[in-house]
């Protein structure tokens, strides 16, 4: 397309003496070459935009999958921690009913309390991770919406340009007749 535009952009060297419609013919060829150049440019632009859109969509799908995995892991850890706390409470009550002294803080029970604290901290960190993944999911959802709007706008603009192109082509065909 670039070569054709350069080839037909030289109208000064056309010999009009033998063929009086040569200039109009050259202008017609130049118009077609420029049209093809613009079409090729828009096609290249759309190809790049579609490729970027596809990569963003695949990244978003990956983020959603990892988000679901983190969510399930956090829910599993929180339910496990709750069941362990409930079992610990039940065992503590059974020991008191049986008349067995329950070790207090500072004695043998210190290890259990530290474990309980570490489980609570782990539960807290998992909940924070869940919140972070929820935020990442919301961000990726908003990115997808923005990409969809951008793709729709590009489609509308492309349709408008295509319609304008067809009008120009129709008017050039009428002029050449």
Give structural notes.
This protein has helices spanning 2-8, 22-98, 110-176. With 177 residues, it is mainly α. The model has no long low-confidence stretch (mean pLDDT 86). Belongs to the BCAP29/BCAP31 family. The chain crosses the membrane at residues 38-57.
List the helices and strands and how they pair.
Blueprint: H1 2-8, H2 22-98, H3 110-176
**Count of β-strands:** 0
Largest sheet: none
- What gross morphology would you assign? rod-shaped
Helix fraction? over 70%
Class by SSE composition: mainly alpha
Give me the strand/helix succession. HHH
Helical region count? 3
Radius of gyration: 36 Å
The poorly predicted ranges are none
Strand content range:
under 5%
Distance between the ends: 25 Å
Q: What is the mean pLDDT?
A: 86
Membrane topology: Multi-pass membrane protein
Subcellular location: Endoplasmic reticulum membrane
Function: May play a role in anterograde transport of membrane proteins from the endoplasmic reticulum to the Golgi.
Main location: endoplasmic reticulum
Concise summary:
With 177 residues, the protein is mainly alpha-helical. The protein has helices at 2-8, 22-98, 110-176. It is rod-shaped.
Key phrases:
177 residues; mainly alpha; rod-shaped
